Amino acid sequence: MRILLIGGTGTLGSAVHKALTGRGHEVVTVARGDGDLRYDITDPAQITALYAEAGRVDAVASAAGSVPYRPFAELTPDDFTAAFRGKVLAQIELVRQGLDHVAERGSFTLITGVLARVPVLTGSAASAANGALEAFVRAAAVEIAPRRVNAVSPTVFTESLGRYGSVFPGMRPVPLAEVADAYVRSVEGAQTGQVYEL
């Protein structure tokens, strides 16, 4: 398959890239500053340009999304807007515009996270964004068939415990290789409307 991998050079994206290429797929990486193609998916016009340059693909996998972390009392309306723009609207737009560029039986795999179901201090904006995206996946699956859409929803990565472990107290970490396997399951499998919790 020919797969467009958004955020393909980051921590998660690199693991997903390795898993997919290891299974013989052609992976085109997309990122703001590096990668095969350089685009910012928070800008709908850049998503349009991305698809125009990339051409037809069999799947789109997103490993990118940003949200602010602050105590709830310090979060502003702009912070919540940034969370929705950076994680929710960007990925929704990948699907919306991608319908004309992804193979008829192709797929979209989006990234959410554990905060959709387990809150942490300073994570209100992230929880709201992840929950909204998971609801979108279930709803979109009904309407875009035979194309498929799923989400991968991991906890903190084992490899990132040193940097982020304190934000996720008591949560069991997951190795990046297992998260990457969930992307493989979504891309190569037959399910749609699923949220793969890890």
TrEMBL record:
Record-linked CDD domains: Lin1944_like_SDR_c
Organism: Streptomyces zhihengii
SUPFAM superfamilies in the record: NAD(P)-binding Rossmann-fold domains
InterPro entries per the UniProt record, alphabetical: NAD(P)-bd_dom_sf (IPR036291), SDR_DHRS6-like (IPR051122), SDR_fam (IPR002347)
Signal peptide: none
Record's protein name: Short chain dehydrogenase
UniProt xrefs under Gene3D superfamilies: NAD(P)-binding Rossmann-like Domain
Protein keywords: Oxidoreductase
UniProt similarity note: Belongs to the short-chain dehydrogenases/reductases (SDR) family.
Keyword Cell division set for record: no
Nuclease as UniProt keyword: no
One Pfam match: adh_short_C2
